[in-house]
Structures are given as structure tokens and as C-alpha cells.
Amino acid sequence: MFEEAMQQMRVVFRQEALDLFDELDEALLALEAEPRNTDAINRVFRAMHTIKGSGATAGFEQMSRFAHRVEDVFNQAREGRVLVTAELVDSALRACDTLKLMLEAGAQEAAALEDGAAQIVAALVAASGGAAAVAPVSSAAAPQSPAAAAGTTAYRIVFRPKRELFYSGTDPVLLLDELRQLGDLQLTAHFDDVPPLEEMDPELCYTWWSAVFTTSRPLSQVQNIFEFVQDDCHIEIEAIPPAPVGGDAAAGAKADAFAATAWQCLEAIESCVALVAAGDREVATWRSYLRSARTFKSACEYAGKGELAQSLVRQVALLEKVVQDDGECSGHDLESLVDEQRKVRDALDRRQDKVMPAPIDAEPAADKSPAAQVSAPQTIRVDQSKLDRLMRAVGELLVARGAFPTISRKLNNDHQLNGMAKEVRDAGNNIARIADELQTTAMAMRMLPIKTTLQRFPRLIRDMSRSLNKSINFAVEGEDTELDKTVIERISDPLVHLVRNSADHGIELAPERAARGKPPEGTIRVRAFNEGSRVVLQVSDDGKGLDPAFLRRKAVDKGLLTAEAAGVLTDEQAYDLIFVPGFSTADKVTDVSGRGVGMDVVRSNVRSLNGTIDIASQIGKGTQFTIRLPTSLMVSKGILFRAGGEDYIVPMDSLIDMTKVPRAAIRNHQGQRLAHVRGQVYSLVTMADLLASGGPAADRPGADPAEEPQEYPIAIVQSGHLAYGIVVDRFIDEVEVMVKPMAGGLGDLSLFSGATIMGDGRIVLVINPAELPRYAKCTA
Question: Is 153 helix (H, G, I), strand (E, B) or coil?
């Protein structure tokens, strides 16, 4: 069970750490631009502090130690003792990269990272002017007690966590170990709230601590240790007045620590004695008594209370015997325990009860102020598999909803049960309303802002700028535009490649830009916005643009096209050459590009998302890539139509128009059927011919004129810059369906984006408008 809990904790920490790495990159880049930005310094400190604490709790000890070293540097920057420089930020970014490697490293890889981590720590220390040269975080490196040093202060500390502290991923022992690094800590653990074993919940914290702490560090540094657990704990930090002249401050502190522990233990012991006197002989009661007595004995030995310690030694021995006998206690043993307890109480000096901490409620009163209510967490983290199960259930509900109209028609038409048909139809409408609301909620839960995938881009651009010796500014518009989580994950890599491509091939070097009258700093911009039911992502740069003549020559040189074929390409078709596998405009291979691999993968990935990608460019002005994507791959609205005796669905977000075209408006030109519709000329795809599904020949243009109908139903579809018409037998209905991907051998059939189950149980294929022109060899 412990291993399973640790594994679960590590999974949660990994996800939390990935979010923190994005936060670190963003904050460090902000700090690089504005070194005196205190908010950015605090963000870095908080992120490192969380990685340190949560990492140690989840078993990532190496990460925790390394993050502690970085945290210490930025803690001193917060206090104004370290100036933030470009070198410091650069070292911190390298530290962030190393933490990412540590997160996924195995035992051998982790050992190999130690040298690199040590070098980064050395660079941080050097960049901070040596002010950050702190002792390493190690249990073997006990700090030198500053108690005897001049300028030290003693504090009395009470640290009482809420019982639910562990739920936040906090380990109180790590906080106390961190406190120990700053000075001399005389710590007492209190177990008076620990219940009997059979009533104990292993996920709750029952222990609390009191301490006398002597240090030369400022109070703010002591308070910082508990900064992130203030809402989950009750904490008191109070300076102990200095001892009178000639007195011993250390001895006074030790006496205070003993008094606090002694009276707490005595209260716990006397509670147990009262239970025993009332007839309670449960083993759990005796064990609680024994724990308190042992703690009391240790405190007496530490404080040099020899006589009192001897009384407790005898009491502990008696208690051990009783516990060993499963709670059986003879009259003589009970009399001996009472006698020993009386000696202990008589020996205590009650005048020291003034140092006892005030009782603390386990649950402090909640802050009802508006500020506290606003700061309460408003989000929860949900495993994606749970959302997927919810969406599958929604899909089944959509299928069930679609059955009601069919049943209603059968009752009405086949059985003449008009009244029952109306009841079924009304029930179906209620189910449809509930299904719509559930579907909307489930879809909203899966939607994420595009910002979640763009957060790493500023760091990417920064590193590439240095690698390519270029000055590049990165701008984002519409980062709150939302997409389905699956779409965001799968579009992330294509976006990265487009941005890298713009930085490498698009943005010129500063001298070249100056010669063209441009500012020395180039700009790469990512823009996201909604366009109907689709999301548009644009990646643009103000670089040198694409030269279509150069692209044609490259294609001929690489043997991808003949000179004749290249000569008839339009500029837009020449731009599309960069998507051909093996095509590259780079003169040499670098660590950034030049292998002719990438842009073809970009287009493949976009098409797999039922999206399109287009290019617009001007020589000397820049290039813009435009990606159009569905907001979700799962639920789709579409038009159900019949072609060649089979039903299909065309997605609504690709549909421009539905109309009927007279036979006379259709022409054949070089083997391509064309139609004039509302002032525009479109290529036609006849579904029955394309799918070879048969059907009446008279339903297809180009059949025997004597048998052709006078007009044809046509759906005008837009796919990227290409618009074309689909000739169908007839349109049936508007539908909303749950689209499921094709599996097995059908997965490679890109003509269809998936399939769905209709209300009557039929399986219907969903057309992929981006691939249909390729199958039919359409042209604009």
C-alpha cells in the first residue's frame, strides 16, 4: 500500500512539476527583461520552494536538494542581498532544464546529472557574487550552532499543522530540517493528539511541535520557511527575552524547552491515568501512556533532571511490562504506577508553567472576509482518462437520444399510434435537452486555452536567438482561445516546428535586416482566434518571405519535379513545395534544420486533426502559416446525406452552402466537372463515382443525358484555400454525433475522419473535407 501511495504521489508531482517549469520559464524571462521585477523574483522563489518541498515528499530527493540551492539564491535576491544579472538568469534557466532531466531520470542518469548540477550551482554562486554560497542540503552536514556567537536571537516556535496537511503534499519534517539548517534547534514533538492505533488515519497529521530556536539569521528568513504552509498550520514565532547580565541564554532556552515539553507530557499522562483509574484497561490506553512517559524521560535526560529521569525510568519499565501483558495490570503494578506518577508531579516546578504555549484549536476559525473567499481554490485537477470515460458516456447518450425520433415515426406511421408517438417525441425532447446540457458541460471540461501550449515558446525563441545570433521578439495574440485538450496536445509539435522554421529560415540577421530598412529585431507572432466553429492559428514573421522562383528551382534540383512541371506551378502551389518530404531550402544541415524533415510532418499532423494549413508570403515582407482546426475531434455537427445508396456525413464547419444546380450549369473541362454557383465556379466531386458505391446512373452528372435529372443537390465545401462542390443523391438531415476514429486497417483511409453510430444503430462514415479533393484530384 505504501508503494502504491508513493507511486500515485510521484505521478501527481510530475504533473505539478511540469506546470511549475512553465511558470519558471515565464518568470525567468520576465526577470531577464526587467531584473528589478520583485514579482518575478517571488514567482521564481515560490516555484523552486514548491519543487523542493513536494519533490522531497514524493521521493525526488536529488531534485529537492538541487532546487533548494537555487531557491536560496532567489531568497537572498528577495532580501536585496543579491542583484539579478543576465548571468544569474542564464544559470537559473540551465537549472530549470536540469530539473526537468532529473524529473524523468533513472538511477544511472540521475548520477550522471550530479556533475552538471554542481557546475550550475557554482555558476549561480559566482553570478550572485558569492552571497549564495550556502551549505549543501544534507543530513550529514549539520550546521554549526550559532548559539554562542554574538548577535544571535532565541525564538520560541509552536508549529501545529492541521490534520489535513499531507493532502497539500507538505512534509512537516522537511520544514523542520530546513529550520535546523539556519541555527540551533531544540525540538520537542507532541503526541497528545495521537489516537489509538485502530482509530488512526495514516493520511492525517496528529503530531505537533514546539521548539526553542537560536540563530543569527533575521526573523524574516525564519518566517519564510513556513511561508507556504501558513494556511494549513497554526504557527507562533516569538522572540525569547535575553537572559539577565551574567546569565546563560542557552541554559535559559534549554529550561524553557524542558518546561514546555514536561507540562505537555504531564497533561497527556494524567489523562491516561484518569482513564485507567476509571477502569479502562485497553492496550491502546497503556501505549499512549507509554509514549508520553518515554518522551518525558528523554526531555528530563536532555535537561539534566537526573532524579526526575530516574522516576520516569521506573515508570517506563512498569508500562512496558503492562503493554507486553496486553494491558493486564496487577493491583501492585497499578499502585506502583500511581506512586511513581505522584513523585514526578511533586518534582516538577509549577512556576515554569508560564512558558507553556496556549491551547491551540485543531481547526482555526475560517476567514470569512471577501479576500479569503476570492483566494480559495477554484479549480481541481482531473485525470484525462476520467474525462474520456465521461465523453464516451455522453456519446452513448447522444446515440440513445437519436433513437427517439425513429421510434416516434414508426409508432406514428407504421402503427397509427399518434398519441403514443407524441409522448415518445416529448420524452425524447426532454432527453435531448439533458443530453445537450451534459454534452456542453463535458466539452467545456476538456477545453483548455492555447496558452497552455504556448508558454514554452518564449524560452524556445530566447535559446534560438542566441544559437542563431539573431534578435527575435515573440508575440502572442488570443492566448485565451480554447481548444480540446487532445487537439492542443497534438498541435503542439507542429507549432514548435513552424516557430523554429520562422526563426531559422524567415528572420534575417541584423545586418541583412538593416540593409532592407527593417529594425534589427525580428518578430514572430502567434495569433489564435475563433472562426465560426473552427479555431484559426496563425504563425507569422516579418522576415525575408518565400521566393516561389527559388522554390521551383530547388524542387527541380532535388529531382522532385521536372522543369516543365515546376514552370506551370502558381505561387501558392510553389509555397506548398515546402511540405514535400525531403524538401529543404537550407544550404547546410544544422542542429536547427536542413534535413528536409519536419514540414511534411506538420501537414500530416494537421490533416490528422481534420484541419488545413495554408501559406501566404511576400518577398522581403514575411510569411504567414494559417492552420484551421476543429475545436474538438469528438463531437461534430454535420449534414447527413445519401450517395450511391449509402449515407455519409459532411462536417458542418466545412460547409459553405447547400443548393441544387441545374444540369445546364455543369460543364466538363479537361476531364474536370465544373459548376457555376452564385457567381463562383467550383470543381465537382461526385460521391457515388468516387466511392464506387453504385446507385442509379441517372443520379450522376455525365450519365446518359436522356436519363439525367434536371438538377443535382450539391454541398459547397471549403478546405483551406480550396472550395469545391460535392454532388450527392439527396440531403437527409442535420445531425450532431460523437465521432470515433477509424481502427485497424481502416485507420489509414484518410478520406474519412471517423465514424459514428446513428440512433437506429447504423454506422455512418464522416467525410474528411481536407482529403476529399486529393482523392478526386480536384483543383480550385
Answer: strand
Give the confidence band of 545 by pLDDT, cuts at 50, 70, 90. very high
Measured CA to CA, the distance from residue 351 to residue 517 in angstroms comes to: 85
Query: For 29-42, what is each residue's pLDDT tens digit?
Result: 888 888 888 888 88
CATH class of 153-355: alpha beta
Kindly report, residue by residue over 162-216, the tens digit of the pLDDT.
888 877 767 788 788 888 888 888 888 887 788 887 788 888 888 888 888 888 8
Q: C-alpha 376: how far from its chain's center?
A: 19
| 667 close to 674: Cβ distance less than 8 angstroms | yes
| C-alpha span between 750 and 275 (Å, rounded) | 77
- The total number of residues written for the chain in this structure: 780
β-partners of residue 27 are: none
413: which DSSP letter? I
The DSSP code sequence of 492-522 is HHHHHHHHHHIIIIISPPHHHHHHTT--SSE
Find cell 477502569 and name the residue: 279
Residue range 450-630 in CATH 3.30.565.10: yes
| The three three-digit cell numbers of residue 691, written as one number | 466511392
Report the predicted TM-score, pTM, of the whole model to 2 decimal places.
0.60
- CATH homologous superfamily of domain 635-776? CheA-289, Domain 4 (2.40.50.180)
Query: What does 252-287 look like in DSSP terms, one character per residue?
Result: HHHHHHHHHHHHHHHHHHHHHHHHHHTT---HHHHH
Beta strand 722-727 with 680-686: parallel, antiparallel or unpaired? Answer: parallel
Alpha helices in 348-417 (DSSP H): 370-375, 384-409
Instruction: Pull the grid cell for residue 542.
Output: 516579418
d(CA 757, CA 738): 8
Read off the C-alpha cell for 238.
Answer: 516569538
Crossing angle between the packed helical segments 384-409 and 418-446, to the nearest 10 degrees? 160
Superfamily per CATH, domain 2-127: HPT domain (1.20.120.160)
User: Where are the chain's structural domains?
Assistant: 2-127, 153-355, 384-446, 450-630, 635-776
Cell numbers at residue 86, please? 543576465
